[in-house]
# Entry
Amino acid sequence: MNKKGALSLIPIGVFVVLYLTLGIVFEYALKIEMGFYNVPIVVIFLVALLIACLQNRSLKLEEKLAVMGRGVGDKDIMTMILIFMMAGIFVGVVGRESAESVAYFVLSIVPPKLAVCVLFIVSCFVSTAMGTSVGTITLLVPIGAAVSVASGFSMPLCVGAVMGGAMFGDNLSFVSDTTIAACNGQGCKMKDKFKTNFKIVIPAAILTLALTLILSLTAEVDTVPLKEYNLIRLIPYLLVLVCGIIGINVFVTLLCGTLAGIIIMLSTGAVNFPTLVGNMGSGCAGMFETVMVTVLVSALCALIRAAGGFEVLLSLARRIFRGKKMGQLGMGLLVGIMDISTANNTVAIVMANPIARDMARDYGISPKKTASILDTFSCIFQGFLPYGAQMLVAISAVKSLGYEVSPFAVMGHLFYPMLLLLSSLVFIFLVPERAGRGDLK
# Structure
């Protein structure tokens, strides 16, 4: 083994140890709410980058800065950063009240027995339109909790339905951080990755809906409370979704959605112009940490690559994962380990991207398939983490309403991530690869 290359991986180990240690101390020792998300991940990455700069003494500091500059200045990285910022502006413009409108509209036209199924379906749609699982959970878990209390459905079942639907959209959405990171990191079109992913997630979603329906029909339920809703604000989300599916450039897609949102929000009097401009700035600023992590990870990976660290990882992967199918599993486990270490599926994908790209070239796996695997497995792992943002936000939302629910009780009702893992493994190992099949080329 290349000793120099192996030592270049030390900064990643330092990051993992620091992040997990501080997260555990904040969350469980100091009892800080959402402790893992109070750990300054940008600072931790800066520490790891500093350690990487102190290694490889064969290069002068100026040469290392040049290596990092080339890594950060990569076309795909710059494209990713710009898309992150555009997505932030879009969400800032359209707001998130429309998500509640969708939920209450659908709940108003279905029988109470189907309320949990509606929660799952609406969560799938809202998260796909909004591109954020945490935002979807923030909006819809309070609705799910209200449904549980009023109807008699169990709280873990309602919360699990929302969380499952949220991860569905996080995986598929054209404006999701994870989709942007995976597609640009692997150099594939979002439309192609969507088609590949769609065939994997639909069986999992259908089975989740069927299982939820069976549990719902056996429960004793009452009527579900409703509130007023306004569906016109849904138009920008629908526009982005349709434009993305038919393959329009992502910048044009986001620009169209943003312009539609500006017109609707101003014409309906939802906000005034100064407030709208401020919301645009806030939405863009909300992407700051994601952008900074992307920059730092790109610089760190450039140094590790220059020192031969990726060659060591690829050599290890070749010995453990033999053949194309096992190589795909190896990619999934790689991003899963990164996600467990960072509790952030976007960061996990950004970290795994360069290694997965080399693995894909080595095993003959297409960019769209690689992007699909990275995004799907990162969402599977993130959906289960008891210290992940999704779970912490869900538990906090329930607690804010005066109720209690255990994260481990919710984990037992996360049917969609469970079935998505099963569906992914089936597509990797059992579905035969045929020329022309978009998900298996």
User: Anything to note?
Assistant: Residues 3-429 form one domain. The radius of gyration is 22 Å. Residues 190-217 form the longest helix (28 residues). Residues 36 and 386 are 11 Å apart (CA to CA).
